[in-house]
Design a protein that fits this description.
Blueprint: E1 2-6, E2 12-16, H1 18-27, E3 32-34, E4 50-55, E5 62-68, E6 71-75, H2 85-94, H3 101-113, H4 119-145
Antiparallel strand pairs: 1-2, 1-3, 4-5, 5-6
Helix pairs in contact: 3-4
């Protein structure tokens, strides 16, 4: 299929059979010209994204919010269990948007200092944050020592 334009009127005919278009272009080169397909529209630069840690106004829980030109993503979602930093990282990585480390650190701090009614949940959150920090420290140490 080809697109051709009548040079005298500027009218464009789209998806003409390739053989018919070739005959018209060969027989009447002054009357017809081939129309090149336009380039696909450029996607906007990914500079319009924003990360923040905030309290959900409905549940009063801390959440990570990622805002882009296409919309907003939040962790934890409505069906999440106990929120953790690793689960937040995994949730956003699954969508192709890795969370900046400073946002994860803010989230861990907010989770550790937030008022949780159940002391077992508070202890689990505190321990997970401690293990995650130890794992990051160990990874940094391995990177330094090679």
């Amino acid at each position: 299929m080809a697109d051709i334009r009548v040079t005298s009127t500027g009218k464009t005919f789209y998806q003409i059979d390739s053989a018919v278009a070739a005959v018209l272009l060969e027989a009447f080169p002054a009357s017809f010209e081939r129309v090149e397909k336009p380039a696909p529209p450029a996607r906007p630069a990914n500079t319009s994204q924003r990360w923040c840690v905030q309290r959900n106004p409905f549940t009063e829980n801390w959440e990570i919010v990622h805002t882009t030109i296409l919309g907003e993503s939040r962790y934890p979602g409505p069906n999440a269990g106990i929120p953790t930093v690793e689960a937040a990282r995994a949730a956003f990585n699954a969508t192709g948007h890795p969370v900046p480390q400073e946002i994860l650190d803010q989230y861990a701090t907010k989770l550790a200092t937030s008022a949780v009614v159940d002391p077992d949940v508070a202890n689990e959150i505190r321990l997970r944050a401690q293990y995650q920090q130890e794992a990051r420290d160990a990874a940094a140490q391995r990177k330094i020592t090679g």
